[in-house]
Amino acid sequence: MYIGPCVSRQQFAIVVFIFMWLILVVKTGTIQLSGHSGYEARALDQRMDPMIIHAKRGTIYDRNGEKLAASRASASYGLMPRKIENPDKAAQLLAQATGQNFVELRKMCTSDKSFVWLARQPDPSIIKRLDILTLEGLTKQFEFNRYYPLGSVGTQIIGLTDIDCNGIEGCELYFNDDLSGRDGRSTLLRDGRNRLSPSLDEPLIEPVDGFDIKLNVDWRIQEIAEEELEVSLLDTKAEWGGAIVLDAGSGEILAIANVPKIDPNHSAIHPKKPEYMRNKLVTDMVEPGSTFKIVAFTEALDSGIINEDDLINCENGNYRLASHNINDFHKLGVVPARDILIQSSNIGTVKIADKIGKKKLYERARLMGFGEVTGIDLPYETPGSLQNPKEWSKLSLPTISFGQGVAVSPLQIAMAYGAIANGGELLTPRIVKEIKCDDDRSGRSYDTAKIRRVMKPETARRLTELLVGVVEEGSGKNAAIPHVRIAGKTGTAQKTEPGKVGYVSGEYISSFVGFVDDREPKIVCLVIIDNPKGSYYGSQVAAPVFKNILNRMMNMSDNPWESMPVKKENETVIKTVQIPDVTGSKVSDAVVKLRDLGLIADVSGDSTLVVNQFPLAGACVNTGSTVTLYSDTSTTIKTGRIMVPDLVGKSMREAIQELVRNNLDVKVKGSGIVKKQNPSAGVFVEHGTICLIACSKIY
Amino acid sequence: MKNQSIDIWLLTSVLILAGIGLVMVYSSSMYLSMNEDGSGSFYIKKQAIRLMIGLFMMMFLTKVNYRGYSKIAPILLVVGFILLVMLLVKKHVTGDVERWLRIGGVGFQPSEFMKIFLIMYLASAISGMGDKIREFTKGFLPLLAIIGITFVLVVLQPDLGISGLILVTGLYILFIGHAKLSHILLVTIPAVFSVIFIVNTVPYMKQRWDVFMHPENNPDAAWQITQSVIGIGSGGMFGVGLGNSRQKFLFLPESHTDFVFSIFAEELGFVGTVTMMVLLFVLIYRGFAIARQAPDMFGFLLASGISTMIGFQTFINIGVTTALLPTTGMTLPFISYGGSSLLLLFCSIGILLNISKQGCYERRLSQEFGIRLHRRAMA
Known about the structure:
heterodimer; A: alpha+beta; seven-stranded mixed sheet
């Protein structure tokens, strides 16, 4: 046998191997080069388990350091479906523990995701049941959740977060970036048997907690404003009421109250949540009515076209202009210009506006901040609607002069009156005092920000005199507070419906805006009541609310004026009165009856009849004291026994207030948030029973 | 026989591959070993000892004249058959499907030994029968029968991987040994059909085939091959770095044995895999070159057979880990963890080196004395 043919066959074999090697190189190259990124992602996905370390969201405080919004760690539960071996059994166990639908849970257990939420921040009872459940694939995580210690007080300012702690309303939204902080990250390593171990190579990124925010708002004033609005709403059956309290000298907002309101801690399912959470005083525009007359008066006095004593014919209350009737409530003849503002004459204002002209009136309105946002640090602010004079019709000048055919936000009105109060400077309203944090990162504080001078100081002083006249002798008499010099102006506007031309017949917006002239700081207060039933004039509806708010503010200990009291009358107005029996009467009647006696009514509940009162009839108290009226049958029963309210989760302060209001005695252990109470909620007890509440600062 | 030189290219590539193998076994088995043994070095210690034994065997066999294998080849074949039958008996008696046999406390895989025994026997028989190989009944058929019996015995273990390797290597030796092409085709066609038949009748093989064709329908069964490809793919061009494999954390089963290529590709990337394939090709190519320089027909066929076996084994292993071929148990020569396989490979290399030494020696003789010994006719 010769070896030659064998060698050529062997060489053929080598060629076959070369060919096979080429196949291998092409195949590996395909996987390693063109498929690289996809395979790498899969390898990392199964190996790395990223873990987010949540940053603590900053706290929101009021100006006195009271917590308005805070974060606390809460337990949430998730499922890792890949780890669940028996989905049917797991779903059954979970259904028992959480009360969720079995079919849904089964779907979650068989999902191909690596993680799904089971229950986020559930009730304590569910937490208890889930904690004792031993189920592979069920994980407990701590997240921060947001709570609002004062409940519904100032909720539209503070706002809300969603379940992921992202602000969705109010300051929570506007300052979300400051409050949020930065979440940290860490990585866990997973092996093929689903065991986790901490990663040594991956850097751990420490979370950075959010900044705290201190508001200018004083929660006590906020609460006063909200309570007074609530009373007024009960009285007038109005749809909505709003109040702004601010310091004209600095632009600091002390309160922005919107009523009705809801408790943000339990708001998730409230049907009217979006509407009730809206800060309408900032976001919505309304026709201002007579409060807008100051624009024409400012221009007239500032430019010297008219002086207070110039006589103007007010046509005895009926004036026909361009086939349109203009009427006055108070019919005036030929009067000095001063009386036009004091008696709020539309006809007189129209005549003054006619002398001013379109362009000047428009420019003055713009100068005073109408038609542009005030720059308040709250979301969704409206600039209002002030058309350019080129687009005005024949009737625009006269109607705009008395506040029709122009739309403004109530905040713009308040700021314009603030400018009059402080001597002519338009300021930026400031909701936030400072943004700060515990460590050495620099926060920032907000100082008084002047926008521009909008009138001469002299004009501001003369206008103030006129506005004082309004309260002392004109349409604003109901806002008068004895021994305090109040300047102000009423407004009554017909309601427009969004998206429709013309006015809704029989529906009005009543307002009053004024300020304390003889004390520092010059506090401006605006009250607006939307669609009151019955009497609808600003003088009758809004002015009393203004008076009550300021009255109560002055009675507050540590009130804004306390540092600089200007007037101290020797003659004391406090006297002792006997409380009448108002049970069984209508709430609105009872409120009026108590007010006439110089008492303040605090209405608890929302039905129309007073079923109980505290203190009881016959008690002697000082004027200015508060009488609580119970109109809600559910909290009190007819035997006179009192149902113990649910206090767990409330602040100690709230709980004590609530118990005292219910005529119960209280014994407190600890401080902070109420954790336990005895007797428990819902039990009926005698008056004066001692309720023990145990509080703790750990949320 | 003094001052003979051995094939440096072959030896160098083998030593580099063995070094890579040791490192890769350590990297790929560390986490597994920590989980099983707690120490992390359980597998690497065993592999290092085997490597030492393998190197010793290689050096020893380099000194042993390969011509002796021609004489003892029939005996070794019979021993191999006996071992395989013992394995089948053990399986029948104990119901154990292990491919291991324990004699005197040492466990080994008879099928690994059978590979080299069969190559020796075929080389010996063909070189002994001369041109009779081209006769069907007297030359081709008896050799085919031997290959067939070996194949069946290994298939019954059951081990389709090594039996397939034995069948292909056997037929290749017949081809290189100048058997008639018509005869080879005559058996190749029924062989292909019988393989298809076996794959379709034996349940575990059928399942592997289904997984290979439709991995998406069998995510659990395809886990290993899916993880293997993820590992190879995530290596990219330069790899995740030596020791940094993610797949070795129990994602890839058999990461230190049959699927060590995947970990290697992941850690060292495309650059690494091409380098390794070049080294393995150099090894095979030098084997064939040694065959051509061999002093006789037996040496030629023996060296060719060994190279062929290593070549196919490499192709099947890498083909399986890259999902080119259906999954079957096959080690990657010199890299994978495994005793019998590594030992037999080093023995084979020892044999190749001895052939190279004698080939060179006789060529030098021919150069010095002008005698044409090269590619002479053999009796």
